[in-house]
Amino acid sequence: MFKKKLLKQLSTLLVGTNFIFGQVVGEIKNPDFIKSVVFKSQNLKYQLPIVSLGETFKISFDDLNADERNYYYRIKYFNYDWTPTSLFQAEFLKGFDNVRIENHRTSFNTLQPYTHYELKLPNDKTQFLLSGNYILEIYDEKDIIVFSRKFLIYEDKVNIGAAVYRSRDLSFYNTHQSVQFYISPESGEFFRDPENLVKTVILQNEQWSTAITGIKPQYFNGNQLEYRYDEYTRFEGGNEYLFFDTKDIRITGSNVGSVELNRLYESYLNTNFLRKGYPYSFNSDINGDFFIRTIEGMEDEAIEADYSWVHFSLSAPKFLEDQEVYIYGKFNNYELSDENKMYYNPGLEIYEGVMLLKQGIYNYKYVAKNSNQLLSNALSDSHALTENRYLILVYYSEFGARHDALIGFGETSSFEVLD
């Protein structure tokens, strides 16, 4: 009897362990008092750090508590699909982590006080040994995780060519985009068992929520792998992002209709309308990203840019039943929470929302959510002509290796979408 009970407990433990070690890991949202999380490489081009081994990148954020508390960072390594790896830390990290972030400064001459933190990686305490998928975790003094962000380290071992096409399926011709690409290794090299060992991930505007994974090569042209799919690499085109500019917080700027000064500045954006059903109109954007900017300080926007309450409004002739409406962009890491939720005002027939944001240039859009899923283009519509950036990540697990090396990435845009 005792043996049966022990075996049952052990079996339950093993099943639970497999679940823990096999589940996909996502990013942890920052709390409301942590703002303006910027995590990029030096060229600022992409919305997440994607850097070569040894290249420097930086994370910065503001703590509105402004009490100069201590924060610590830890680093974890993952497989290409963001499931945990079996590697020990010493196999992917040289040095150590769980180190205090020493670079922090207090805001200067701002109505909203905050402490600004910056961390550069790699540094004299932490260097990376492998390419692949990583997560940076930020902890507080009580050893409680505050938030986390993904980043990628790559090696330049493959050539990737890609282009964006309209869908060949006529029902998606006007609304979707298909990414077609090829992969070829360095001269003189070859892929071993590419159907199983080469893994690809396609990102639209660096957003993990819509990533396409697990696509196998469709054709083999010598040592070149070709992915000429239509359906399996198809994305909604979406619509161009809306934007506003608060780098001069005291006056009305681009798409800022009025400004008030209370305890903090209040920036009221021009009311937007539902774009569902309207024809496509090109509008240059930064694909949902944001940049901190101010023209009011001494050129140190990290600590001199102030915060304002930004008021959003979306004209809607009636309440959207069974749907919740959110303000969506990189400034809140494309998360849905009470902070960026909008509420319907029947008297004005608009959805209203307000967010505390640092001075800068912002892209945003409105998205809907029902009980089952995010409807990212239900309010803005989807067009095949929309300009989007696509990244093709290529991973290779060499025979006998216990990790997925990121051996290169390619980039293409739908700015000139092909038929």
Key terms:
6-stranded mixed sheet, 31 strands, 3 domains, Immunoglobulin-like, 5-stranded mixed sheet, single chain, 8% helix, disordered N terminus, 419 residues, 4 helices, mainly beta
What does this structure look like?
The protein has 419 residues and is mostly beta strands. The chain has three domains: 28-154, Immunoglobulin-like, CATH 2.60.40; 158-237 and 385-413, Immunoglobulin-like (Sandwich); 242-375, Sandwich (Immunoglobulin-like). It has helices at residues 2-22, 89-92, 194-197, 301-304, and strands at 34-41, 50-52, 57-63, 72-78, 93-95, 99-100, 103-106, 115-121, 126-128, 132-139, 145-154, 158-166, 176-185, 198-204, 207-213, 219-221, 224-227, 234-236, 242-245, 256-261, 265-269, 272-273, 290-292, 307-315, 324-328, 343-345, 350-358, 360-369, 374-375, 389-396, 405-413. Strands 20, 21, 22, 24, 26 and 27 form a six-stranded mixed beta sheet that branches. A hairpin with an 8-residue loop joins strand 7 (103-106) and strand 8 (115-121). The longest helix has 21 residues, at 2-22. It is globular and about 65 Å long. 35% of the residues are buried. The model is unreliable at 1-21 (pLDDT under 50).
- What's the CATH class of the largest domain, please? Mainly Beta
Radius of gyration, whole Å: 23 Å
In what range is the share of β-strand residues? Answer: 35-45%
User: How far is the first residue's CA from the last residue's CA?
Assistant: 69 Å
CATH topology of the largest domain: Immunoglobulin-like
Report the sheet with the most strands, covering strand number, pairing sense and barrel closure.
Answer: 6 strands, mixed
